[in-house]
Structures are given as C-alpha cells and as structure tokens.
Queue: 2 jobs
Job 1
Amino acid sequence: MKKVSYWLSLPLLYLIAILPFPVLYFLSDIFKILIFDIVGYRKQVILTNLRNSFPNKSEKEINEISVKFQRNFTDMLLECVKMLTLTQTQLARRFKITNPEFLLKLQENNRGIIGVVGHVINWEWAGLIQSQSSPHATMIIYKPLENTFFDKLVLNMRSKFGAVLVPMKLTLRKLIEYKNKPYILVLAGDQYPGKGENVYKTTFLNQTTYVFLGTERTAKMMDAAVVFCSIKKVKRGHYAVTFELLEEHPKATPDGVITEKHIRFLEEQIIDQPDTWLWSHKRWK
C-alpha cells in the first residue's frame, strides 16, 4: 500500500513542482481555503497557541496573525514540493545568507558549529541554501518517515545541494566521523521534548515550556561553537537568514545557559514576525 500511494502521488507532486512561482502561489491561495477555511485544519490549536502566547493582543490581532500564518503554511507546503525541481539559481534569488563570512570565521582551525533553528518558515529552504553556499559540510538531523519510499524522496530533496542528512539515532556516530573537520550541524530547538531528565524548563512566549537539552549537550561534547539561525521572511517567496553567535566556548558555560539563550533568540524572532512560526504544532501539551 505504501508503494502504491507513493507512485500515485509522484506525478501530482512533479506537476506542482514544475509550476512557475506565480502559479505556485496562486495554487497556495486555493490550498489555504481548502485546508483551513473548509477543512478547518488545526484552527483551534493555532488560535489557542496565539492567544496564550500573546495575551495582550486583541482578538482581531490574533485572527489577523492566524490568517497570515495559514497562507505562510500553504506557501511552505508547496515550496517544499518545489524542491523537487528547484535549481541553485532559483534558490539563490529567493533565499539570502546575510553574513556567510561569519560561519567561515568560526570554522577556522577545523572548528565545528552547532546551528540552532526554529520552525520558522521556510526552514527547509534554509538548509538548502546553507549547503549550497558553504564549502564545508552542512549536516541536518532528521527523523526518518515510516513510508520508506517517501523517506527516500524527501532525503533526495533535502540533500540535492550537498547537505548531509543524519538520522537522529546516528548523530553521535556522524559527529565522531567529522571530528577535527569544519562543519555545521543544524538542530531544531523548538520541538516538544516531553518531560524528563533531559529537558530544560523555562518560560517561552508567556508559557511554561520544556526544551530538549540536545543542542547544549552536543555542543559541549564536541566543543563546537553555537549559533542561532535567524530566518526572516522578506516578502512572499523570499527569505533571508542571519547567523548570530550564542556561545563560542560551550564547555566553559554553566548548564542551561546555551538553551536559555537560543530560546530567547527564537522568542524575539517570533515576536518580530509572529505569522512565520509553526503555530499549528502542539508545542504545549
């Protein structure tokens, strides 16, 4: 069944991927109506997350952010499909790295870097542009899909410009392989980690929030500099990422400091462009 669904879906995915960008975004507007206005996909989750995160905003403001997020969400869905046919030239026109020399400076003397990113639209293209632009390895941690056919397709899309995709459970093995080599390992810092010994408790967007300590512990173990990857939406279909230093010498940093820093950076980014974060995610369970 998984194989059948894959082969039935593939022609449609490629049909969408070959569309010119203006037509792609017209289709995104239609998808927005279907997914959110008709089906009502997670609309209450989105509104609840927004209300709890911005208690001082009016209901009108909350709804305006929600509607903008919905369009951003369907834009990203189709931009991800577009990755099937996206060229390096097209990507370079639409996604800019504002300070690429910053990473190169940190990577001198074969230094590794841990890059923390939030689920800010479009984080998938951010991985592509970094791997396309850097002379050093860009490693992206991922959780394999259950459907092995789609998993292979997504891996090929994400790695088409040179990124090294690393299954979550093989992270340590890959890092040992790259010891004494310059690289950037990209980790999402805003996923729900559950509650346990390996989490950090803080306040994020006016709510008690648990954060996975993997970023901080990996940086200390590898003595890798930590940077925050700040993604901004410039206009529809155009983005920019700026790298900001969180900690250059993590081993000397007290526990919790790095995690608190990247949460505060992400919070500031979300407050600046609230409609670009993944509000449909059940972050607070």
Job 2
Amino acid sequence: MAHVAEWKIREVEELKNLIDQYPVIGIANLVGIPAKQLQQIRNKLRGEAVIRVSKKTLIKIALEKSNKDGVKDLSKYMEGQVALILTKMNPFKLYKLLDESKTPAPAKPGAIAPNDIVVPKCNTGLDPGPILGELQQAGIPAKIEGGKIVITDETVVVKAGEEIPPKIAEILNRLDIQPLEIGVDLIAVYEDGDIYTADILSIDEEKTISDIQKAYRHAFNLSVNAPIYVKETMPYILQNAAAKAFNLSVNAGIITSKTIPLLLSKAYNQMVSLASTISKIKAEALDEDLSKRIKRKGKVTKKKTKKKEKEEKEEEEEEKEEEAAAGLGALFG
C-alpha cells in the first residue's frame, strides 16, 4: 500500500473542516489571475469569504468526506486552477461581488473571447505605416485621414466563444482595446443541498426586479378581481364592493343615509323632465311655480359664460335642496 504524505492528510482534513463550517461552498477557476490581483480580491473578501487554493484531487476527497448532503457533486465543476470559496454570503451576492472585481485585460493569442470583440469606428491616432495594411488584411476598414489612420466602420473581429488569433491580438493591443477580463471565475456554488452554476448566478438585476414588479401587479389585480382575500388587497376589495353596493342602491331606489341626496336629485330631474313634456302638450296643466322651474331648467342647458354658469349652478343647488319636496307635491298632488 502506497504511503500518503502527511501534509496531504492534513490538507484534506483542513479542507473538510472548512467545507463543514461554511454554509455556502463555491468552486472557482483562478487561471490567468496575477498574484497581485488575487491578493486584492482576498483583501476585498476579508471577513466575508475564504479563498483556499489546493490540488483538485485533495479538494475532491475533502468534498467526498464532508458531512453535507450533495456537496461532493461540486467536484464535477472543477476546471483550470481550482480554488474553494467558503462563505456565509448569499451565492448570488458572492457571484456579483466577484464579477465586479474583474478588471479589463489585453488580448492574448489563443484566449477565448468572452463576448464579441468589436473594433469601433474611430480615429486611432496612429501615424500611417504598415499597421494600415494589417488592419485592412484583418477585415477592418481603415484609411488615412488628416494624417492619421481612421477606422471607418465598426467591425466584429472575433465572435464570442472563438479563439483570438495572434494577428488580431497584436492589432487589438496596438489599438489599446482590452477585450478580456481578469478575475475569479465562480463556476458553481453549493447551498443547502442545491448547486447553482454560473449561468444561474449571473442575473440581470434590473430585468429581474422589473419581472417581479410585473408579477406582483398581475397577482394583485387577480386577487382584487377574483376576489381572493389577502391583507394586501382587502382594502381595495372592500372599496370595490362598497362602490357597487352604492350604485345598486341608487339605481334600485333603495333609501339609505348615503343615497338620499342622489335619489332626491334624480327625482327632481325626472320631475322637471316630465313636467317639461306635459307643458308641451298642455301648458295650463302646470302651476306657475312648476312652469318657472321648467324655464329655469332650460336656461341651465344653454351655453353660459364661466362666471354666470358658476352663479346659476350655486343657485340651482340651493333651490333643489329647499324645494325638492314641494316640487314632488306640485307634480303629483
């Protein structure tokens, strides 16, 4: 039986204890990160998370020895220069923090473009020379203008997921275009038995918030119109019910303390309308007071100046309240 180095045994035990200690365990790839930047990231995470670099085989063994259900499945996501990130931080917050810590980096031959690499339309500031031919050979439209090399159209030189050719990398560096990013790539995170991969952790916050707000509005409207009784919608359901009950009372002529003013106003208008119809058939059938009301009602319908309309409206409202009962008696008495 082969002898296992003592330091490896200690390393596995330390890794296992860390994995069991923290609720959130991340697998990260540190390939291409300079030591200086990695130290800056460690400092940024100090007190929030622990970054532990180790051999893949030792990390895998530690994951298998851990008491956490399902954490061993993180070993499927180990690639590149693997590190464990252990924290109590929400996985999405951790991903965002690491993503924001990334910095632009120059193009490297053979590197994979994370996004489409675009050379913009611009004045490069470069003097005429061999670079002009190199730009044109690379499919980048360029010419000399005002003694400088000018790129005349925006051009995609490398599509997302493709390798950066050496010549393109050289041109991008000459143009001071930094299409790559240096930083910790969080590949997958374990929390409470679930594993979240980078594509899940990378979210558009504005769109997510907008979607949640939209879903809330739809649920709220459904609750009010269904109706579904919850504390958020109860005031609106009650208001809606009160409004419908009030309209029903008015239209059905149900007398309550709230409907009396509208019912009297409605009766008054109906009385005047009926009296107007009667007056056209037999004017003498109406008494003098009712005839005056009809004439006054006719005047109200005519076009008025703003001042006169306001005065007559106030006068009419006062007379309605005082004479409604007398008017009903004049019509039916």
